[in-house]
Design brief:
By secondary structure, the chain is α+β, with helices and mostly antiparallel strands. It folds into two domains: 39 residues, no CATH class; 49 residues, no CATH class. It is 62% helix and 13% strand. The chain has a two-stranded antiparallel sheet with strand order 1-2. Helix 1 packs antiparallel against helix 2. It is elongated and about 85 Å long. The N and C termini lie far apart (88 Å). Pfam families: MtN3_slv (PF03083). Belongs to the SWEET sugar transporter family.
Length: 108
């Protein structure tokens, strides 16, 4: 609105130093209004998805994090999968350090 008024003032007084910069302001204002019209209900869609999808964040001690978006009805299955993967990774680390010794590995 402000850019439109200054553009009109510059055109009315035939002052190009006022009118020309406000042409860009008017164009950017139109773009802003178009984007607002397109995305004004974006928050409602996001709130509707919150009831359908949950996220599980697995934080690694090294600082890396994994995010797993899941459907609410599949929550138990993914939690079990993540727990199994974490236990497998932990076992691999322990095996690499030599903490786990299988019965078949020890000489008798």
């Amino acid at each position: 609105m402000n850019a439109i008024m200054w553009l009109a003032y510059g055109l009315f007084n035939k002052d190009n130093c006022v009118a020309l910069p406000n042409v860009g302001g008017v164009a950017l204002g139109v773009v802003q209004m178009v984007l607002y019209a397109i995305y004004r209900n974006g928050g409602a869609k996001e709130q509707a998805l919150e009831g359908v999808v949950k996220t599980i964040v697995v934080v690694n001690p090294l600082g890396l994090a994994e995010v797993f978006p899941i459907a609410v009805d599949d929550e138990k299955g993914l939690v079990d999968m993540v727990n199994n993967q974490q236990s497998l990774e932990k076992n691999k680390e322990e095996d690499a350090q030599g903490k786990n010794v299988e019965a078949n590995d020890s000489p008798v």
